[in-house]
Amino acid sequence: MRVLDYTLVLLCIAIFGSVIVDAQVYEDQVGKIDWNKQLVGKPKFVLSTSNIPSSESNAQDKPEASAGASVGADGGLIVATEKNVLASLDPESGKLNWRQVFESNDVIKVIKYVGTDVLSISGGSKQDGKQEKTIRMWNSRTGALKWEHTESSGKSRWGADILYSALEKKTQEEKQKSEGDTNKRLIVLLGSSVLRLDVETGEIQWRYESEEHISVVFKRMVQNKDAIFVLGDESVGKTGIRVVELSARNGEKKKSYLAAVGQSLDSEDLAILSGGEGEGRGSKTSSYLVWRPDKNIIWNTHRLGNDKVSHEIYHAKIFQLELMPDMMMTSKIFGIDVDERVSYIGLSYSFGSRHKLVVARLEENVEGMVDFNKVTEIRTSKPLFQRKHITVNSEGQLVSIIPRKDNKVQYKVIEFSEEDTTGQEIKTIKSNSKRGNIEQAVVVSTKGGEAGGKGGASKVLTVTSDGVMCMYEGNHGKEAQQLWCRDEVLTGAVGVAFVNKEIAKSSKLAGFDDHMKNGWITNMFARYKRHLSELTVTNMIQSTFKSEDKAVKFGISKLAVFIAKGGYVGAIDTVGGETVWERQLRLSEVDELDGMESSASSTTQQDWIEPTAIYVTREQTEKKGALVVVVGQVTESSGKKKTVVVTMEGMTGKIVSRLSKKMNYLAKKVLETNIVEPETEQKIIVLVDSKKNTADYWPTISATTAATVEAANDKLVAVVVDGDEPGSTQLVGYKIGGQDDIHTLPKMWTLDLGKSNSQVLHTAGLAADLTVASIGKALANRQVVYKYLNPNVLAVLAGSESENTLTLYVVDKVSGRILHRATHPNADLTRSTGLVLTENWGVYYHYTKDTNNDKVGNWILTTFEMFESDKPDTLHSTTDSFSGYDDFVPFVASQSFILPDQPTALGLTTSHSHITLQDILLSLKNQPLVSIPYMQVDPRRPQSTKASSSSDQPLSQGIPAAVPILSISPKQMISYSVDLKSISHIVSTHTKLESTCLVVAYGDLDVFVTQQRPSGSFDQLGPSFSKSNLVLTTIGLAIACVVVTPLVKRKLLNNNWF
């Protein structure tokens, strides 16, 4: 009896030690969307400011858009951004009111206020190669589209401009002369066409088609009285500015001639002064071209409409300046137009280490020539001052930005008006030392007061190099008050990595991977030891009664560390979306790195490190903190690019200098491994030199551990594949060899795709730390089909434009053998494609055209899965390892499905122990983010119901038949009603809950984070569960057993005696 009891106890202990204990979560924490960011990008254009009149009868024509933003007619901040977005922001808080996202091939060219509405011109190349140009009128309050007009042409280069006026006809004589002309005049330049459109409907009232459209690219229009001057760059024969004069009333051509010979409208040596017909000083001036020939000290002025006369003015006479010849020849000019009443011209130049901006006013003299009279100037000795730091909005308000070395930026606002010559307001902004430098500022509104800022204030919108928009108000004090900031840096995100907040027991990252490699007896005793340590009385009491963040404990709250263009690195909490830390990787902050060129002596245009990849190389433990490695590029003064490796503390963002270095080469490839360097306890990454074909380990390993690393390297990261980037026509495999500091890369194989006129579109490999929970799949008849598990598999999507085919290659990276090939005919390679790979299966999508109609087609999602054999219970190799050179090809099952919408990104879910089934994450263009169960697109699904029970397809037994059109239910839409735009990347990370993973979707605009449970919440606890009650009940039962056991034994003994 006692032997049986002991046997049962040992059996319970063995079962207890072999069970993997997982965490559980409470029911009220399930299914919550954590956060999303709707972004717009860095401002690109500015409209006229808040002086739009309530009545259009006396509205003045505003000049064209320029870089920045403006306050709209309803008080909203209207911006057009680098990400092709037209949006309205709340000027008091920066919150998004509305946005319109344009297609990537429909680039916004110009925007302008037309009354209280916003007119945009956009366009680009379409599928047939033609240029499509679209004019749209938007309601500035709601963002609703009022009307649009579209035209097509075959010319790739074209310009756009807008003129609008709402002038009141004061006398009966003027009304008779107008010949029915309305007081609202909207004229649009669209390539070689000039159109007058009805403001309310967009109907064409007259059209002019340029006869010089073949040799001229028209870009600008200038209106002076009843004449419209259309300006373009002449590119054939004698180059210069082509001027075409039209009648504003009927579009009749009056004259066409060439001016400013040798100049271009894009030159910084040429300015366009619109002139105007206002009253008072400088009234009724004509419109002028002003330019300086290259390497010359003489300026030329040309009055538009006068096709014979141009005047020369010596440089020094323009602004009454005494300049040396080198100052004259390096100066830059720009026009400043104020309500088309008075024209000003700006001149910026340098002398030694000092910079000066001089502003002069254009005035016509009695001799029919022009004078430029100096009005004001700005001086600075700051070395960072450049022409880009000067911005003029359409109201003639000029802002100059002067960076200072004390993390502050001084800006000066000069406001031009008729009554007073200038008003100058000088304010200081305290900039964020951890973010990019302010590179742009624009006045968006002004408050009343005396000129010069006395009693008044300006609102200035600033933009940093890494995408932070801030609104400042210059009150009476010297330092401007920040009203709000809006961070748009994640519109340029290029990568993300996840740092666990929970302290790990060990810094080793592949704990479950060890479980798969070790024997079951070793695993049993390891788990038994771990369970005992977790079930001590101290741990039970602490875990029962201490207050802790369950989101951190379960791994739901992590730090998502993003890298973005402009040198940005920042950590955001996955719960709530709050920024924990952020910084810009500036050259000045990493000057102390080994081999880094001093930023003081550098003459490069950018002062930051451009990040390209990010890795978490060490998790946080009780003794050591988490480490994040950012790999980036810097451009030296000589123009050469070098790779920089920067190691940062994952929880704080502090740079670890001793683990950071600038390489003396540009790495063409960075490989992540699952090998841990013993001294620093970091995962090793491999850097491949782009020219010498050598590889470096980072962090640098010691000689004593080199042999160990190389031994692991032979199994895990032995091969480097070159040519796997889009556009390549050849794949080459190299083997990392040698145990010295420099590792040679001898060539092993070559796969030439050029023979079939194909080039690489996408590649996907297996993750370095990928683990597999099962080696096979059970069929309905209890047989097992074994997975083909090869860690050196590479999937390649290649396309041939000449044959309109898309081909999937599955390649062994060790031998270069093609394990599987599948070709799709009638593929449209101008559309996007996507590819992901995991374990023994993968997913990709493409667009297929109809064979009878090229304009009709479908988006196709294809899944493929590799098995050891098409027969159940069959294994190719029964050993732990096999050779890539074996003459063995896996059996591949494949299936295609029609998608309901265009996909933009593809991803997969993951889990802690890889037991939970994986879902396919798909971002669709006009639908929410969806999660598709793998069973729905299982490639083993038969084509018909009869085939699922047929013995001819043993792998499909018990699986329902496939449906050719993929249907998506509302339950699969994990972003619900959130409006996500321009999603191009979907990544996931596991939590400590086996059922739960975190999904992060990002791209050119939005960021979205949520939790996903592909197999349901099987580790969910109800809200009534209480750990303390469970512990107390267990203790009570144990005490009751101790007390009752002697009583029961005594009773049994008495029963035996009596």
TrEMBL record:
UniProt cross-references to Gene3D superfamilies, sorted A to Z: YVTN repeat-like/Quinoprotein amine dehydrogenase
BP GO annotations: protein folding in endoplasmic reticulum
Domain called EMC1 first beta-propeller: residue spans: 25-488
Signal peptide interval: 1-23
Chief place where the protein resides: endoplasmic reticulum
Keyword Ligase attributed: no
Subcellular location: Endoplasmic reticulum membrane
Topology of this chain in the membrane: Single-pass type I membrane protein
GO cellular-component term (any): EMC complex
Protein name: ER membrane protein complex subunit 1
Originating organism: Zancudomyces culisetae (Gut fungus)
Taxon lineage: Eukaryota, Fungi, Fungi incertae sedis, Zoopagomycota, Kickxellomycotina
